[in-house]
Amino acid sequence: MRLYSLNKRRFVLVFIAFFSCFGISLLVGIAGPPIIDTVTVNGSSSTILSTNSMKTGPYKLQSPPMSTFHQQLWLIAHIETDNTAGSTFEQQFRMGILIRGVNGDAQTLVKSDNPELSPEMHNRTRRLRCSEKCEDLIVMHLGFLDYSYYFITIRFYDLEEAKFNIRSITFDFKSYNTSFTQIEIWIRFVFLVLTFFCTCMFAHSLRKFSVRDWSIEQKWMSILLPLLLLYNDPLFPLTFLVNSWIPGMFDGLFQASFLSALLLFWLCVYHGVRQTNRRFARFYLPKLLLVGLLWITAVTLASWQEYNELHDPTYYYRLDASNFVGFKIFFFVIGGIYLLFLIYLLIRAYAELRQMPYFDLRLKFMTALMVIVIGITIAIVVMRFGGGVLQDNFVAELSTNYQNSAEFVAFYGLLNFYLFTMAFVYSPSTNALYESHFKDNPALSMLNDSDEEVHYSSDTEETSLSNLPRAHDSDEENFR
């Protein structure tokens, strides 16, 4: 691997290049447009200004002009009551919603054959929670847009006998900014092209070597790079060409698959670097089951909400409390087990291999880059959600989407440049065929050599090392 031919200066340059590329992508995101467009409608203007009508409606709303570049549409209600004392109260009520879509000049209503735009009124139970101000109510969410305009009629039930009065109510139509959508298409396309070239170059560099002689990092990179192609989603433009939920479903599936493969990569590398007996049943199967449960949970939660919203755009996952809480607890339990297992493998690897220079170098590089990626990811999540990261901001809703272009570009750039850096370091060096070959086995490591002497020696020392007798040809794995 090129890892063994890098001296200290080159290692520093590798990390400088990584941070420079990430910083450039972050600057591009900061200069980008806001992600969400918001149009506010005063609900009081759509009904008679009386106490009873404010509690019942109907509220008749018309959305701003929509296109496929708006991607999704949310309708959120902000309710203000006359609760001036600041006391906390909750009120359960029913909300009826009728949704119609029109195309063209918005003059003629067009009845839709799509089940999510059924002419029948959807009835949902909601809970209004108020203290100094009331929590926002997500009235509806459309995962993809078929029409140019949407007409929504909203009625409230069971609020007539409530002790409080509604002073005002406003509705926010939220959708993706079309300028951000165009930037997202270009960013995904650029990363897709870069990943394609990186994958081809990495595969080309390994063409001279048998697969059985690849190191475990090289084998995993040959899996992760094609999955990174899917993560960048070559099907993403279909979202704007086809009025269907299928491209969005594939996008979520690709992202979950790549992230799960990355989690599996960390487990396998930290375990596999200290042993060569990697039989499927004992080595890979337990890890596949653990990460597979995380993958199944993530895909099920996303597809479950998508499926329900297709049949009823007023569906809200928090109201399906029993299923949602169960999935959420299961996800965090499995995630906790994964984290403990990863820490255990990392400690074992360092305890057994820290005195073995070649393997110690692999562990240091792998851990340093992984910690950087995890640290930046946690920083992005904390800045996005704050203390609510473990609360109900869990499934796809407005609060779990990126808040600005910087967050989107930073996260995409981080994962792409992480894979590009590993592909460069784990690719075979230019003189791999002429280096001393050394089997990927901790039992054969140079126990008496220090990491400094082997990898960062002077020219004289490097010359003397090159005169050492060569090992058997089958022991070439570590030098690619």
From TrEMBL:
Residues 452-480 are annotated as: Disordered. It is a multi-pass membrane protein. Residues 470-480 have a biased composition (Basic and acidic residues). One of its GO terms (cellular component) is membrane. Residues 57-176 form the TMEM181 GOLD domain. Residues 177-429 form the Wntless-like transmembrane domain. This is Transmembrane protein 181. It comes from Batillaria attramentaria.
